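Title: Request for sanity check on Helix-turn-helix domain containing protein prediction

Description:
We are preparing a figure and want to confirm that the structure record we downloaded matches what your pipeline produces today. Could someone re-run it with the sequence below and paste the raw structure tokens into this thread? We only need the token string, no images.
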Amino acid sequence: MNIIEEHRSTLRAGETTLSIDVTTLPGGDPAGRLVIRVGAAGAEGEAVADGQIEVSAGVAATLGSMLSEMLRHHAALTDPGGRTARPASQGRPWTPALDAELEQRWIAGESVADIARELARSPGGIRARLPRVGCDPERPGEYLPDPPSMRPAEAASVSGDGNDQVWARPGLPGTVIGGGDDD
């Protein structure tokens, strides 16, 4: 009986989808052999990487480290480096007009990325500011719910027999009305 083990991993980086498949080869070799297939497709589905290598399982970790180091060095040489450009308004104070525009755009359903681009802010800055204008950063187009301390007192029970009660937390808006035989 042959047992073949396969591991697959797919990663999307920008417009490129990378995939790596590692398969053990059946056979009597006690050290085991691995086939490593690498592929990548661009935005239009065109192949931007394709190949495979067969290695002994014992050297796979060393080969992986070596490839990782070589590719990092190559990327460092070909990458112009430096910092990426900051959004024009990053770090500037928020004005009431900007807060109002942020709230309006969020409630209209615009994405964080679109709002960040239009307001010349970073996406992180937009997400951090949303709760300050009352918007829920986890749910596009929605306001934050009122916290319990800001909610009006709710009726706890309405029985219709003169024992109606409205409960509120001590020190918060609301009235506690006691009914029943204690009156």
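Thanks, this matches our download. Helices lie at 60-78, 96-107, 112-119, 123-129.
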